[in-house]
Amino acid sequence: MSETNLDVSAEAAAAAAPLLSLQDVTTYYGQMRILERISLHVGDGELVCLLGGNASGKSTTLKTILGIVRPRSGRVMLSGKDVTSWSVPDRIGCGVAIVPENRRLFGDMTVRENLELGGVLRGGEKLDDDLDRIHVLFPRLLERRSQLAGTLSGGEQQMVAVGRALMSRPRLLLMDEPSMGLSPALVQQNFQIIKDIHQSGVAVLMVEQNAAMALSIADRGYVLSTGEIVLEGPAAELLRSEDLKRAYLGR
Fold first, then answer.
1. How many other C-beta atoms can be found within 10 angstroms of the C-beta atom of residue 118?
2. Which end of the chain is more exposed for a tag (fewer CB within 10 A), N or C?
3. 161 burial class (0-12, 13-18, 19+ CB within 10 angstroms)?
């Protein structure tokens, strides 16, 4: 086969690959195994939820995808490329963004400054159009643009965290416990926003303990228990699963 044909074949394989794929990933913190040979994937434009109890390995999975934690074995693939050895900035440059647990805003910076940080890896690009899109999604942030982020309510801080991630124009948005610390009314609003982001074409991998709510908007789901995937499938099927109901929904 000619070199040109090889290049075309490689491009075709990459185009057909999932946007994200974890392949037999095992991750340790020191001598403690956290993830054991987990495999999952997220397709272009999919909304996938990762469920499980405390200390099941959910947040470590996101850190492994982002490159904060390196797996002991296995591969992390983005659009068919092996990025296991890539740095965090390189992965973000490949179209990955995260809304971290507890928001992690810069409290002594304004709302606008926090949002602008989300586009910092885009070099000298003007961010005005992106800020306008964030303000359409979150009108409250336009009102609060000059306010220090640390003085916002929990719900408003969550809006800033989501907006900051979207400023990088991600293809894949990682969300770590987006409903944590929010009132029931804000949880409903937050999940509607996640649904809207998904419908705009952004793929989402969401870590969440509120299994019923997460599965109600997801395409597919995975369930982690002590670092291993014990259930997976279409969201509607998982919602009907007696094993899931007993383990995570209390039914």
1. 25
2. N
3. buried
